[in-house]
Amino acid sequence: MDEAAAEHPAARYRAGDGVLFSSSKVPPGPGIENTCELPIGFIWTPLSPNNNMTTIQTNGETLLPVLCLTCLAYCNLFATFDLATGVWICPLCEAKNVAPTESFSLNGPLSPVLVSPALEFRQSFPNSCSHDLDVCNVVFVLDANLPCNEAQAVGSVARSILAEIADAPCQINLGLIVFGKDVSIYQLGVYGMASADVFANHTGLTEDHLNDRSYLMTVEKGDTDLDSLLRCISAVYGVAVSTENDENDNSGNSPAPVSRMDQLRQRKEERLRRQQASSSGGGGASSAEETHFSLAKSPWTMAKEKAKAATPRRCTGEAVQCAIDLATAGSSNEARTSRILLFTNGCPNFGDGTVVSSDVAVTSATNDSKSAPDAVDPPSLARAVQYFDIIARSASEAGVGIDVLCSGSLELALPAYQALVEPSAGYVLPHETFASAHLQHNLGYLLKHTFVSTAPLQDDANAATSSQNEVWMEGCVIDIRMSK
Fold first, then answer.
1. CB within 10 Å: which end of the chain, N or C, has fewer?
2. pLDDT mean over 325-329
3. What's the CA gap between 367 and 303, in Å, rounded?
């Protein structure tokens, strides 16, 4: 494989540019006694780079005449054919099939079939909608309990990746949701300020909100600023600032995150110190006589500190439903497919889909001290799995794919997140922290190399008779045939 192909995320699944089998030897015979009760499987990654792969593009919905009508085997290099009549004989069932005579010529479309050990047929589909522009909505759903540096890392990585993949005729509309005890949907289309609508549950999000608010922002190719996204993230989590010493430090340690409120308080304290020094005779106070000032905290600062000391709340179920509504609803929504990327560092513990017992949640809510990490309750987890499976299946039917990225060391209740991503064949990716190179690789893989495989596609042939007729793309068909 060349260097570019080796860097492809899917290249690690290829063994010698071919199939990666689960066993290095074929069993000597059939039956459990010869297979050690272990099944034999293989891993094959469609559309991944392969120097030995021959790709055949098919135009329209009709596949080339390469299937045996008797056993459905593909025509391959072991088949015999007659150039004069176009008849080829299946090497498996020995049935005769026919194809156009010009197909087997030297430059014919079926000539690679007879000489290539590995083939990949790429079939084109009709237009997805009546619009010339293909639109995809991407909604980032961030846990409000993420540390500042991790939230800022998500925004920075998203900025670099989205600006790279946004290109005509594909348009990306970006949305941002932050959830804790409530769900905040930010208006990324409003520039110069961070504006959000806060909902206690998804039922408060109406069609009027979706049609009248500027929740989605169009990402242009090369748009490396994305100021609205970073501004809204900074409004929730604060900004990471570095002092002059930090800038000269070559140790590589990241600066400690400081919120904007803390910055203003530090500046005010420094200003009061300078005023006190100038009023004490011009010489300033000695180190032993230096006066320290303690500013009175505002009610908003005290409420924020109290919220941090309490048990983190995550209404994950409500946030996901709001994200689905944002990605699919609205009269002006022209997106064919949508993506929801959930970033969290804990398990759902509040509202619908909680995995924590209601008795534990009530006790933690009434306790003023910081509670222990959430303990997953098995009956609650079973109900959460069913809940997330239902809403994820409805989202998948609407062309919405869901992926979950986790971080931290708290209990995650992974079966709930797996139920959330399974209907759309999404991923649950764990991270030690989002402020690392792993996020750049994983998020880049999700947005660049994975797509919604089940999406409604408009059938142009029947569009004039019925606008409701749809065809569905059900992923890829893999057929492995080998000689003895």
1. C
2. 86
3. 16
In contact, 311 and 371? CB cutoff 8 Å: yes
Rounded to 5 degrees, φ, ψ at 187 are -90, 90
Largest CA distance in the chain: 110
Cα–Cα dist 426/446, whole Å: 9
Q: Is 348 helix (H, G, I), strand (E, B) or coil?
A: coil
In the predicted model, what is the mean pLDDT of residues 288-299?
A: 55
Q: Do you know the residue count of the chain? A: 484
Decide: 126 and 460 in contact? Cβ < 8 Å: yes
Strand-pair partners of 54: 119
Q: Which residue has the higher pLDDT, 171 or 250?
A: 171
Average pLDDT over residues 393-414: 89
The region, left, alpha or beta by phi > 0 then psi within -120 to 50, assigned to residue 399 is: left
Q: What is the fold of 134-239+310-454?
A: Rossmann fold (3.40.50)
Q: What is the DSSP letter of 311?
A: P
* Domain residue ranges of the chain, discontinuous segments joined by +: 1-52, 134-239+310-454, 254-308
Mean pLDDT value of segment 63-77: 83
pLDDT > 90 in the chain, percent: 19
Using a pLDDT cut of 70, give the percent of the chain over it. Answer: 65
The closest of 319, 299, 308 to 204, measured between CA atoms, is 319
Alpha-carbon torsion angle 7, 8, 9, 13, nearest 10: -100
Residue 51 CB contacts under 8 Å (≥ 6 apart), including other chains? 1, 2, 5, 17
E strand or H helix that includes residue 172: strand 170-179
Q: What whole-number distance in Å separates Cα of residue 179 and Cα of residue 318? A: 9
Q: Residue 295, SS3? A: coil
Task: Provide the pLDDT for residue 166.
Answer: 67
What is the model's pTM?
0.65
Q: What is the DSSP letter of 443?
A: H
Residue type at position 223: D
Helix (H) or strand (E) holding 277: helix 260-279
Question: Which carries the bigger pLDDT value, residue 209 or residue 166?
Answer: 209
Q: How far apart are CA 18 and CA 308, in angstroms?
A: 52
> At a CB cut-off of 8 Å and minimum separation 6, what does 14 contact?
1, 20, 45, 48, 50
Mean predicted confidence (pLDDT) in 131-141: 78
Q: Which long-range contacts (CB under 8 A, 24 or more apart) does 101-107 make?
A: 103/64, 103/65
Residue 176 · residue 196 · CB < 8 Å: no
Which distant-in-sequence residues (6+ apart) come within 8 Å of 369 by Cβ? 309
